Structure formats: structure tokens, C-alpha cells
Amino acid sequence: MRLFGIILYSFLVLLCSFSDQVVKDIDWENNTVKINKDLEFFWDRYLSVGEEPPKVSAIVDIPFDWSKNSLYSVWGKGTFRTKIYLDSGINGLAIKMPYNLDSYKLYINGELLISNYYGGDERRYSTKVVKIPNTPILDIILQVANTHDNHGGLASPPVIGLESVLLRDLNRGIIFDAFLFGALILTGLLYCSFYFSKRDEKSSLFFGLFAIVLGIRTTLYGEHTLLMIIPNLSLELEATLGHLTYYFAVPLFMTFIAVNFPFRRSKVVLFSVYFVSGVYSIFAIIFPHKILIELLLYYQIFTLIFAAIATFILVRRALQGNFKAIATLLGFSVLLVTTINDILLAQEVINTIHLTPSGMMFFIITQGVLLSQNLAKTLHRSERLSEKLTALNKSFKRFVPEEFLNILDKPEVIDIRLGDHVQLNMTIMFLDIRDFTSLSERMTPRENFLFINSFLERIGPVIRTNGGFIDKYMGDGIMSLFPSGADTAVKAAMDIFKTLDIYNSHRSKSGYEGIKLGIGINTGSLMLGTIGENERMDGTVISDAVNICSRIESITKEYGLNIAISEDTYSNIFMKKGLFIRYIGKINLKGKKKPVAVYELFNMDNDKSIRSKIEFREEFEEGVELFQKEKYNEAKGMFSKILERCPDDFPCISYLHKIEENIYIPRETIKD
User: Fold this and answer.
1) How far apart are the first and last CA of the chain?
2) pTM
3) What is the mean pLDDT of residues 428-432?
């Protein structure tokens, strides 16, 4: 029985014409069959289904282009016919029809399976993979007409295989095209964004546009994904887009080369390439593909000429050791070779595969290497600049407090403008070193600076720790502001005296005299802002509250106070518990018509003084009231009584001195 089958199969093969194909023992899971050998070709006619074949014009192999054969004219029509004998019992076979710009209709066993012809001149994309009849014999008729392209016939053969295998191969091609499209478009947008962020990088703009154009072009070739996305798009329009992307890409690339690697007569070269490409672009919009294809060879020659110019420029720069030119030359060489391959393939000089997408990918990779190198250099420069700016800002903040910027709602010093200001309530503190003049007279200028800086570097952190900031250094004094309120300023004043005790202890051990301070605190409305002119500005505080605070600090020496606070500050202290405060009186301040109520904060006195002041606080404040009522004798008796028990109470001594020297406050002032 087996022998009979072999004899019958051999008999059928002998009966088949030499144009038929016998397909046997094929591993369909891993292989496909190209219909490319010994096809019957009937020139200038469409062979109908079931029609008795006339005399065969020729037996041909695919690829076949009748326009290259002297026996046929350039424009025309024809029919390809063959029979395929398959093993029986093969299910799930399909046929894949390659992209063809010519009009065609594919019949198998009399059934029309695939066609891109929609009547008249209209041709559209048609499904590439279609199931075929489940029969052991396939009678294939393929009608072709090149009414739109001067290449007549078939550039690629139909392929038979399992539908799953054909779709897998098709999807691989689509995925590769999509990947290439995404890589080119993203690269183009990235380079364009570089230009828009830094306008002097014109080469980035032209390379970015070049990459975007190539990205669009990838959808027009290979698996023709644009036609899959827009099935109703005519093949004529797709061909026009293919021409336009070609005519745009060449001038963009030459401009990229000219901008990146300037050369003599670059303007002449660019004018030539833009003029010719512009003319061809206009032709592409006006004329159909069948006319453009006749002119394409001249533009391809034109492309090769300018490619040679670009190569010469890159080679010369590469020989000079320019790394950018070396990398660009490497990528461009591969792109040029693949482009020449596709030009020769389009002209049917060689029979290879479409390689330009791979060349473009390699070229993009080389530019990506350059991009990563430039990014690394830019990042390094940015880091160095950032470090420098950070150090510069830190230096600026030594002159302009960060809190000053925050209050003005300015992120950086450079954001400050002349006249920026804000009005708000704050607590002000003035601090002054007592008897600094006598101290400085005993020191050299260098020792003076060392002493002042040594003192201030201990006081500054205390102020900042308590929520304040130093507004001004005034020789031997400090003016500081406390946005968060009176409580923080009072605590800062007490902490300053604690720090002073430690500092004086170190000075004593080194054989230096201890120093004394006077601190005045006031609370009120102020204007904080910038004054000066455009070339020289300064931050300052303008307010009567500041003047009062300065005057309050100045009387601390007169009354022997460590810390003096105004009534406004006293009334704004929320946490009075634990604070030792007594009323000093309404005191005439220099430059003020009305006296100002002043209080003494004596927490930082020695323990004996604190106990005495607490014990005689009521008597002292009664004495102050008698003094202000001009009952000087009674006031004198009260202060004298206190001094008997507390001989170091300096405010009592000061009031007795005023009484004895007849230094009285005018009655009308007290009434006011």
C-alpha cells in the first residue's frame, strides 16, 4: 500500500507542468514556503479563473520586474500563475502577500483572497495574511498592473505557512518598526527640547527634526504600519509622504553637519540642498507617484553627492581628533552604507533586504553616546556650578539673613528688588558692650577685631536658637529681630547672659577683664525692607519702635540694668511665670517727647540681688510712683530704706541721684 502511494505521488509530479511546485515534508511549525520559482507569466492580459491558459509568455522567478525586460514595455499588466501541491491533512495554512505599490488581485482555487484595487486609480492597504483553502492543490493566479509605479511585477514573493507563524513574523516586523519609530521620535523630541532650553544649541534642533522625520518615515516602509493604523489611506498618499520625508531628511541632516562642524562654503552647500529639496518637495505635492519615481534617481544621485561632502567633512574633523566627529562618522558610515543598499535595491541593481532602519538605529545609538557624554559633562558642570552657587548663597546669607528673605517672601537674594518691604509686628532687641571704648583703647586694631568676632560668634547662635535673627552689627552692639514674639526675645536675652558668664570665665582664665552687657527689648509695628539705589542696596528696619528700643538699651547703663524691656514687650509676654520683673518707671528717652514705661528683667542678677529685689519690689515700685507724683522727699526716704538692706540696687541709687541733683521730670510730661 505504501509503495502504491509513492508510485501515485510520482505519477502526479510527472503530470504537473514544470511551473508547478510540489511541497512535501515541510516542518510548518518552523518554516514557510515562498512562491518564487518557475511561475508562468502571461504578459498584457489578466488570466481569468477557470480560463484555459493561452501560450505562456515566460517562466519567471520572483522578484520579477517586466520594466527591466526588453521584451515588455515599462507600463502594463500581466498574470502570474502556478500550482502548489501540498501534503494532505495540513490545517491552518495561510498566505502572506507582501506590500506592493502596483495594483493586484490574488486568486486561489478561483476565490479572490487579497486585493488592493478599489476601482479607478484608488489603491488601499489590504490584509497581508489570509487563510487559504484546506486542499492539497492550490491553483494560484496573481493579476498585477503597474499603472502607478515604473517597476512592474513583484519585488517580493507571496509566502505560504501556518497562519500563526506568518502572523508571528508579521508582528515581529511591526514591533521592530514601532520600536524604531518610538526611539527616533523620542530622540528627536529630546534634542528639540535641548534647543528650546538652550537656544544656542542649533545643531540639537536640526538633529531632533531629522530624527522625527526618520521616525515618521519608518511607518511608511518595512511593515507599513501607517497603513495598518489608517487602512483607508490611499497608497498614492502614502507614497507621497514617503517622498516628502526623504526630501526633508537630506537638508536637515546637512544643516546638522554644517552647524555642528562648520566648513567653508557651507552657505553654498546648504542653499543647494535646500533649493533642490524644496523643488522636489513641491513636485511631490503636485505630481503623482508615477512621475516622481521617474525623477527619483536624480535625487538619489544628488543625495550621494552631499553624503560624500558630509563624509569628507567628518573625516577631516575626525583626523583632527574631534571625538564628536569620530562618533558621528561611525554612525553616518553605517547609515550611508544601508541607504546605498536601499537605493540599489529600489533600482533593482541588487537583491538584498531593506536595511535603512537598522542603519538609522545604529546612527541614533552613536548620537545617543554623544548625548550621554554631553549630559555627563553638563551634569558635572551643573554640579560644580551648583556647589559654587550654594557657597555663594551661603556667603550672601551671611550678609542678608535668610529670615529676612523669608519675611519678604523671597527664595533667594537675587530675587530681592529695591523697595521690597513688608509691615508687621515684631520684637526688637538691642545689645551693647559696656565701656567698649575704654576696652578698645587698650587693644591693637587686630585685637579689637579678634575680640569683637570672638564675642559675636558666641552671641549669634543664641539669638538664632531662640527664633531671632541679627539685622545689623553696630561695632560693639547688635540689633536683632524676633518675628515669633516677645517670649523668645526675653528668653534669648537671658540665654545671652548665661553665655556671657561662660565667656567671661574663659577671659578671666586668660588674664583678660570680663565684659558687661546692656540689653534693651521693645515690641511694636515696623517696616522691614530694602533701601538704597539700584547699584547698592541694604536691608533695614524703619520704625519708631526701633528707635525706642535703642533708647531703652542706652538707659541700662544709667540705671544699672542688665535687661530692660518696654511696656509693649511686657504686655506681650505670654509666659510671665518664672520671670522676675519690676517696674522701673516712666523715663524720658532721648528724642522722645513723652516718657516711656520701662521694666527691669532681673533673672540674670546674682542670687542675693534677686532675693533683695523680690523682697523690696513693692517698696521700690511705690518709691517710683512717689517720684513721678513729685513727692521727692517721700520717694527719697523709700529708696534710702531699700538701699540700707540692698546697697547694690542701682536703680535706687539712680533715683536718689536724680533727687539730690534736682533732676526732675516736668509735671506736664507726667500728666501727658
Assistant:
1) 139
2) 0.56
3) 92
